[in-house]
Amino acid sequence: VDTMNDALIVCDDDGVIRFVNSAACAMFQFNQRDLVGQPIGRLAPPSAGLAQHQGALRERLRAVLQSAAMQDQEMVLWTREGEPVDVSLSVARLQQKDGTQAPMGTVTIARDIRERKRAEKNEQQLAAAAAAASAAVKRRAEELTHAYDELKHTQAMLVQAEKMAAVGQLASGTAHEVRNPLSIIRLGVEHLERSLGRSLSGQTGEILEMIKEAITRSDRIIRGMLDFSRPARLALKPVPLRAVIGSALALAEKQL
């Protein structure tokens, strides 16, 4: 019995300790004379501040001792100095052999499971830390994905801005090249009107007038392209709304 690693406690039917082995004395920091003859409740919390816990533990110990048999019931007992000890209790009833099978006490084996509890706690902490780290990595991945999407969007906007700048430069160069022929055509039409004078027939006059209107419209569109492509500071001022709408409609006339 004294070579056992687990604590052995033998109690009579009233719950009074009758025998403890050396492992029990070492586990709970008592001498044999301090435990033998004392109720099992001696292993309850010694501090007065734990009176409620002490009473509950004594009731539980009493219930354990009155059970027919029990295996590996986890419980917290207390040392002489007030240190909690996590134990796994296995209880067997002792009965008379006189034919009555009357109970005469219990044999209780308490296995110290503090190391196992610490390992379980460490495992839980590691699992929680791993879960937190995994959540942080997932959150970081989502942030990086969002940042990458924003970067792609910004790059697309920059490419579009460069395209618009190129279109503006092209429009500016093209507008200058187109305005010169338009000016020559306008001068030619005006020369024809002056040369024909009174001999200008109705149909010919209408055609020349249509050419002049087309030249005016084209010149207006080109002037708008030049204004758009030319860098200018924003200047807010009141303008006639009709003129703004007219300019917009002139650009969108064909599409409309």
Sheet/helix structural class: alpha+beta
Please work out how many helical segments DSSP would assign: 6
Estimate the strand proportion.
Answer: 15-25%
Distance between the termini: 106 Å
Q: Give a short account of the largest sheet.
A: 5 strands, antiparallel
The radius of gyration computed from the alpha-carbon positions, rounded to a whole number of angstroms, is 51 Å
- What is the mean pLDDT? 83
List low-confidence stretches: none
Q: Compute the number of strand runs.
A: 5
**Strand line-up in the sheet with most strands:** 2-1-5-4-3
Describe this structure in words.
There is one protein chain. With 256 residues, this protein is an alpha+beta fold. Helix content is 59%, strand content 16%. It contains six helices and five strands, in the order ββαααβββααα. It has helices spanning 22-28, 32-35, 51-66, 114-196, 202-229, 241-252, and strands at 7-12, 17-20, 69-78, 84-95, 103-112. The protein has a five-stranded antiparallel sheet, with helices on both faces. Strand 4 (84-95) and strand 5 form a beta hairpin. The longest helix has 83 residues, at 114-196. The protein is rod-shaped. The termini are far apart.
List the helices and strands and how they pair.
Layout: E1 7-12, E2 17-20, H1 22-28, H2 32-35, H3 51-66, E3 69-78, E4 84-95, E5 103-112, H4 114-196, H5 202-229, H6 241-252
Helix pairs in contact: 4-5
Summarize the structure.
The protein is α+β, with helices and mostly antiparallel strands and 256 residues long. It has helices at residues 22-28, 32-35, 51-66, 114-196, 202-229, 241-252, and strands at residues 7-12, 17-20, 69-78, 84-95, 103-112. A five-stranded antiparallel sheet has the order 2-1-5-4-3, sandwiched between helices.
